[in-house]
């Protein structure tokens, strides 16, 4: 059976179209890379490595472009994680839940804008923390879904243990950078790395050797 015909629970029909998933992924990656440079350079010291040059901060100057960023990024991950589950036959409902939560949390991030400091009212604080935690959980849910797929597949194909182990190395490197030096560059590059991994696994022949030969 063709692996792309496998349909795990809670998958969406659009994800069976490889060219659509690829197009959304590539366009989304290109857009968020270009968006990295949409900063207010009239502000002293502002650049892609500036402490607060985040995507969320840029929404004040570019609300519509920020909304497009969220929609493209959400669908790029949602469709391609679904395609990944199809291709590597991962029917676990828990993975589907993570995939859907990742999409939902990014939509909340888009719909609930953060607020300029200082926060003076309860609404200011609520907006800030809802935006902050939804953004964090969007990242965590998508990363957990991807790692879950690696974990399931490594039982049948030992090559996936390297992807699984590499994910921990990736997290160990990125987490301190996000905590201590969050900026546009550190926010964008890990996203592009994850998109690259999805592209390699979904649309190249790197892992297309029958798993029976690699167990």
Question: What kind of sheet is the major sheet?
Answer: none
Rounded Rg: 18 Å
Beta strand %: under 5%
Q: Extract low-pLDDT stretches.
A: none
Task: Give the overall silhouette.
Answer: elongated
How much helix is in the residues?
55-70%
Q: How many DSSP helices?
A: 7
Counted beta strands: 0
Separation of the first and last Cα atoms: 20 Å
Mean pLDDT: 89
Please state the structural category.
Answer: mainly alpha
Order of helices and strands: HHHHHHH
Describe this structure in words.
The chain is mainly α. 65% of the residues lie in helices and 0% in strands. The chain is built from 7 helices and no strands. Helix 1 runs antiparallel to helix 7 and helix 3 runs parallel beside helix 5. The longest helix is centred in the middle third of the chain and has 32 residues. The relative contact order is 0.15.
Per-chain topology:
Layout: H1 18-35, H2 55-58, H3 63-87, H4 93-111, H5 122-153, H6 160-181, H7 184-203
Helix pairs in contact: 1-3, 1-7, 3-4, 3-5, 3-7, 4-5, 5-6
């Amino acid at each position: 059976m063709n692996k792309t015909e496998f349909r795990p629970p809670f998958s969406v029909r659009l994800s069976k179209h490889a060219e659509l998933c690829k197009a959304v992924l590539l366009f989304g990656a290109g857009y968020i890379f270009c968006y990295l440079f949409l900063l207010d350079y009239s502000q002293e010291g502002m650049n892609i490595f500036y402490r607060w040059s985040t995507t969320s901060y840029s929404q004040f100057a570019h609300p519509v472009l920020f909304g497009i960023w969220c929609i493209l990024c959400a669908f790029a991950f949602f469709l391609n994680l679904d395609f990944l589950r199809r291709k590597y036959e991962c029917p676990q409902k828990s993975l589907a839940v993570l995939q859907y939560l990742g999409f939902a949390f990014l939509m909340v991030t888009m719909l609930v804008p953060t607020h300029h400091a200082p926060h003076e009212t309860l609404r200011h604080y609520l907006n800030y923390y809802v935006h902050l935690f939804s953004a964090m959980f969007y990242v965590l849910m998508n990363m957990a879904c991807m790692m879950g797929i690696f974990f399931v597949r490594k039982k049948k194909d030992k090559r996936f243990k390297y992807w699984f182990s590499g994910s921990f190395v990736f997290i160990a490197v990125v987490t301190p950078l996000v905590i201590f030096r969050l900026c546009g560059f550190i926010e964008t590059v890990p996203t592009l790395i994850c998109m690259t991994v999805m592209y390699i696994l979904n649309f190249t022949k790197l892992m297309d050797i029958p798993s029976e030969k690699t167990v």
